[in-house]
Amino acid sequence: MIINILLYFKSFILNDKAFKIFTVYLLLICFVQLTTIFVGKILHKPNLFLSHFYFIIQFILLSFFYVELLRNKLLLYFCLPVLGFLTYQYIEDPSLFYRYNAIGISITQGVLILYSIIYLYRCLQGQNLFLIINVGLFLYLISSTLIFASGNLIFNLDISESMNYLLINTNRILYFLFQILIFIEWRKNYYKKIHRS
């Protein structure tokens, strides 16, 4: 992930707003992930609360990313009710901050999947910038939604630890594949821009 951040920042100035938003997304998501590792593995403290930041940051930045790709500011009106609903959830039940929010995860990622499908449809009409990233996002979001939306269910049932690790490792593998697709997108569409300038 850090390699992708460095490569995308290397191309930052030369590219459009969608590229810049996606680059900031990579940076902030990496920061949340590193913070999660620090809190959990080094401080040995519960770090589940950081997942809320991950999904909300992801939702906001990727929504802006798709607004730019689809050139449709109406998509932002989709964001407001979702963010309003999440805010209501956390105000109504502050303890939710320390639990999996399966509904919040499903809604935010569901909206992003919808944006991704709309963009895939646009790509059929000839637009193919960020196509590889969009396909990676679509596959990763579908699978991680299924994995993370079942988070509370997994903790409420007596599912074996090996099954829990299987789900977590499946998500890690899919995320790694997503990172490979991000690199392929950069190499295919942005590597040449650096060498031309």
UniProtKB/TrEMBL annotation:
<feature type="transmembrane region" description="Helical">
    <location>
        <begin position="21"/>
        <end position="43"/>
    </location>
</feature>
<feature type="transmembrane region" description="Helical">
    <location>
        <begin position="166"/>
        <end position="186"/>
    </location>
</feature>
<feature type="transmembrane region" description="Helical">
    <location>
        <begin position="128"/>
        <end position="154"/>
    </location>
</feature>
<feature type="transmembrane region" description="Helical">
    <location>
        <begin position="49"/>
        <end position="67"/>
    </location>
</feature>
<keyword id="KW-1133">Transmembrane helix</keyword>
<feature type="transmembrane region" description="Helical">
    <location>
        <begin position="97"/>
        <end position="121"/>
    </location>
</feature>
<keyword id="KW-0812">Transmembrane</keyword>
<feature type="transmembrane region" description="Helical">
    <location>
        <begin position="74"/>
        <end position="91"/>
    </location>
</feature>
<protein>
    <recommendedName>
        <fullName>YhhN-like protein</fullName>
    </recommendedName>
</protein>
<keyword id="KW-0472">Membrane</keyword>
